[in-house]
Amino acid sequence: MTTTPSPAPARPHVVAHVAVTPEGVTTGFEPDVGLFYELAGTWQEDVTLAGSGTLLAQEATLASAPPGPGPAADGPLLAVVDGGGRISRWEELRAAGHWSDVLALHSACTPPRPASRQVRELVTGSERVDLRAVLETLAGREGAGVVRVDSGGSLIGALLAADLLDEVSLLVHPCLAADRDGQRWYGNARGTGRALELVTNETLRDGIAWLRHRVRR
Ligand SMILES: NC(=O)c1ccc[n+]([C@@H]2O[C@H](COP(=O)([O-])OP(=O)(O)OC[C@H]3O[C@@H](n4cnc5c(N)ncnc54)[C@H](OP(=O)(O)O)[C@@H]3O)[C@@H](O)[C@H]2O)c1
To answer: What is the reported pTM?
Structure first.
């Protein structure tokens, strides 16, 4: 008897939009934040997938900022990979006015969370958050068609290593990074040798180049 292989579970289109220097470094320079978020609107993502390193870098600002306007009903869901259980400002993130809600992504090894915590969570993976399972759940349970990754190189590198990245959008700033040991946008991901399809190659204001590529499969 022959068996028909079951189709691969659906997962969303995953795009990483990153501001970089020509060396591919994501920190140690002043990105044009306004332009970055203007272009981030290109994808109208259903889910913003953020790394814990990125959000931890913003927690001090969130703590001292005045209360946000509250959830944006039409905004994307903010899903945060937080295997270490290090994020604490969930209420402030939900109220920031950018997202409709927040979702904490944990693994079986994530330390216990306070019982009083008011945040939805999704637990996948035994030691680390299982990024493939997360994306399949976001498609199946949240109806996500597009996920935009907002992170430094670690999360993007992990997605690349698992062959889960469909598009790379680099906003290349005309300066060299001050930090010679700065993190590259692809983190420590091993090479995949995949071909890319050029979508956009534009020069924008102040000599910033926007390079957008789709990963060929
Ligand atoms: N230039 C830009 O456009 C841009 C954009 C965003 C952020 N940044 C900067 O980048 C810096 C933060 O970047 P970062 O690279 O340190 O951190 P990050 O990518 O924001 O966070 C690392 C994330 O990757 C996850 N991760 C790594 N390997 C994994 C694996 N194998 N499986 C599952 N999850 C995995 C970690 O999960 P755990 O929590 O479980 O460890 C964590 O959530 C900040 O300084 C920020 O300002 C720059």
So the answer is: 0.96
